[in-house]
Amino acid sequence: MQRIGVYVGLDLVGDGLIKLPFVRALRRAFPAAELIWIAGEGRSAYAGALAPLMPALLDRVLEQSGTGAGLRRALGPRLDLLIDTQAHVGTTLALRLLRPRRFVTAAAGYWLSDRRPQAARPRRVVERLLLLLELATGREPDASGAVEPPASASAQAAALLPGEARRIALVLGAGGRHKAWPLARHIELARALVARGIEPVAIAGPAEADLVGAFRDAVPEAAMPLQQVPPAGPELTIALAARCAAGVAGDCGGGHMLAAADIALVSLFGPTDPAKFAPWCARGTIVRAQDHGGEAMGAIPLAAVLAALIPCA
After folding, report:
1. Residue 249 and residue 174: Cα distance in Å, rounded?
2. Which pLDDT belongs to residue 258?
């Protein structure tokens, strides 16, 4: 059995969501290998909040492992491949001392890698990771499809959103409110969907508690499934998204959760750069505030979102 390691500094939940297409492609590239995720400087969401998504993707997650003798002991036998995803040259040199049979890294402009790309380094985070996988395997990675949530999450989602109604998910908030579409616009969109016979599904976590009441009062026809259960992990949001035809989100973790369900996604961007942070999905549309005369999210008009969304519903 091949033994494959992937080294990262650490993974917060947002980092882990962004990297999910890479992890999916990694497992497809090495279906029978032992895949070891190595967080050298801190914790990894793959051992925490995102652990329920990992059983079919990763075999081991090492945290706070460093790069030296402790990591060597934890890894055991020599790795067949080590993918170094960070860019600090000193860390990369230490990892090379582990003597993997193949080693790929973007550090020092790929000069410390066993294989180097022909093209320039991509800006998009997930594309940088997929390029490392392409260098490691010599073929284009397959990051398509959905992340499979646990059966328990899928069953809970089916109970919360029963039947076969036409649904569109709306992620109301964002980690930074400046990255979220204004609540008034979400309400306008939800009412427009109801008028078309489409059920809006509001995705709002504990951090958006101040938005929930106003949205519920304005659009009582909308579903608010996460408000019906105790606080749940990302796996439930992904399972809920899978029961929707499409979704709308700003630059936030919720957008990456919708993308993980492989539904059509309209991503709204203003102060942040979609070339770097856009979710990875097969049916994605970017709507930018800059294309409508502003930098703030409020510059994005309802008409532009509906035009992108309705063909997907």
Report:
1. 8
2. 97
| Residue 149: closest CA among 232, 62, 251 | 232
What amino acid is encoded at 17 in this protein?
L
Output the six-digit token pair for 258.
């919708």
Q: Are 4 and 35 in contact (CB under 8 A)?
A: yes
Please give the Cα distance from 288 to 234 (Å, whole number). Answer: 26
Per-residue pLDDT tens digits for 25-43:
999 999 999 999 999 999 9
Q: How far is CA 112 from CA 7, 81, 89, 90, 274, in A?
A: 15, 14, 9, 11, 29
CA trace torsion 88, 94, 100, 105 (10° rounding): 10
Q: What is the DSSP letter of 282?
A: T
What mean pLDDT is predicted for residues 169-186? 94
pLDDT at 157: 98
Rg of the chain over CA atoms, in angstroms? 21
What's 121's DSSP letter?
P
All structural domains of the chain? 3-137 (3.40.50.2000), 151-312 (3.40.50.2000)
Structure tokens that stand for 165 in this block: 């109604």
Instruction: Quote the tokens at residue 240.
Output: 């809920």
Which pLDDT score is estimated for 122?
A: 86
Q: How many angstroms from the chain centroid is the CA of residue 211?
A: 23
- Residues 80 and 170: their CA atoms lie apart, in Å, by 43
Per-residue pLDDT tens over the stretch 251-303: 999 999 999 999 999 999 999 999 989 999 999 999 999 999 999 999 999 99
Phi-psi region of 262 (alpha: psi -120 to 50; beta: other; left: phi over 0): left
Short-list 87, 116, 280, 253, CA closest to 173: 253
What is the C-alpha to C-alpha distance for residues 168 and 186, in angstroms, rounded to an integer?
Answer: 12
